[in-house]
Specification:
Largest sheet: 8 strands, mixed
Helix content: 25-40%
Number of helices: 10
Distance between the termini: 40 Å
CATH architecture: Alpha-Beta Barrel
Oligomer: single chain
Radius of gyration: 18 Å
Strand content: 5-15%
CATH class: Alpha Beta
Strand order of the largest sheet: 1-2-5-6-7-8-9-10
CATH topology: TIM Barrel
Structural class: alpha/beta
CATH superfamily: Aldolase class I
Order of helices and strands: HEHHEEEHEHEHEHHEHEHE
Length: 304
């Protein structure tokens, strides 16, 4: 299979300088902490979503010995309207050494809590479920005290449907993650424009399957606010998540990566995030992170 070519974005497609609300401005973190991680992952030709997505919290997370590794290459087979990861129809072949490279990076960085996520790989027979399991096994062999959270795609089975989806989720569940995360990303009404190729009910089903297979594994999901959703729709989504047994939730502000991505419809205020967080706790979520700069893996290691 030839190496994939990511979608090229012209320089003028970058978002022009705009004045963000004060609550969205923060220092990126200590250069030394960021460069250490960058050097280790670059040398091993692996990826983190912290870098690929230019997460605003990466310096803080690195300082707290937490990182989120992006498995199976930097090119996704889907084209969500919000995501900064490159898209392409022919992703690169899997690097057979990636699980060991990630495990070695975890050891060198002294990480005590690791989040494994991935691009969506609809081109693979199991869409990468087995790769998650292999990488978890490699990390544990080299770092026995490290906890591992997974943030997986929906593993939809295409023509095979829910049977294949269940088998793929089961592969990851059998590897016993400390937490199983799958993000629903936005409210039901906005799934089409925001999550191209994904479905609201399909994502709920992922979290439900995890609980059916092993009720002891905490499940988690997240939403990005700012796509035009209403407070009532956010509350409805949180209720739907609780109905499938979702234990943990993250709520954060969507920030437009470039002009090729969906525009921000609203900047939710810290007070509004606090109110939604309080509602989530009242609903019974055991762990709630709600704030403008919250991302899926923010302070993940404090939840175990």
């Amino acid at each position: 299979m030839p190496a994939a070519q990511p979608v090229k974005r012209s320089p003028n497609r970058e978002v022009p300088h705009e004045i963000l609300p004060a609550w969205l401005r923060r220092p990126i973190g200590k250069a030394s902490e960021i460069s250490t991680v960058q050097q280790i992952i670059k040398q091993r030709q692996i990826h983190t979503i912290c870098e690929e997505g230019r997460c605003p919290n990466r310096g803080e997370c690195y300082a707290n010995q937490t990182a989120t590794f992006l498995l199976m290459g930097p090119i996704c087979t889907r084209s969500c309207g919000f995501c900064q990861v490159d898209k392409g129809h022919a992703p690169m072949p899997l690097d057979p050494e990636e699980p060991q490279k990630v495990a070695e990076s975890v050891r060198l960085l002294g990480l005590r809590y690791v989040v494994l996520t991935s691009v969506t790989r609809d081109d693979l027979p199991d869409q990468g479920a087995g790769w998650f399991a292999q990488t978890m096994q490699a990390i544990r062999a080299a770092n026995s005290g490290t906890q591992i959270e997974v943030l997986t795609p929906d593993f939809w089975g295409g023509l095979e449907g829910e049977t294949a989806q269940r088998q793929r989720v089961a592969t990851v569940v059998a590897a016993q993650p400390a937490c199983y995360n799958h993000n629903i990303e936005t409210v039901r009404r906005l799934q089409g424009p925001v999550r191209r190729g994904a479905k609201y009910e399909r994502s709920l089903r992922v979290l439900q399957i995890v609980k059916e297979l092993d009720a002891t594994i905490p499940t988690k999901s997240g939403l990005m606010l700012g796509h035009g959703e209403t407070e009532a729709e956010v509350i409805e989504t949180m209720q739907d998540l609780r109905q499938v047994g979702c234990d943990r939730i993250t709520l954060g502000q969507y920030m437009r990566p470039s002009l090729d991505h969906l525009p921000v419809q609203k900047y939710w205020t810290p007070d509004e995030f606090d109110q939604l967080g309080a509602i989530a706790r009242e609903m019974g979520f055991s762990h709630v992170r709600s704030g403008p700069l919250v991302r899926s893996s923010y302070h993940a290691g404090e939840e175990g």
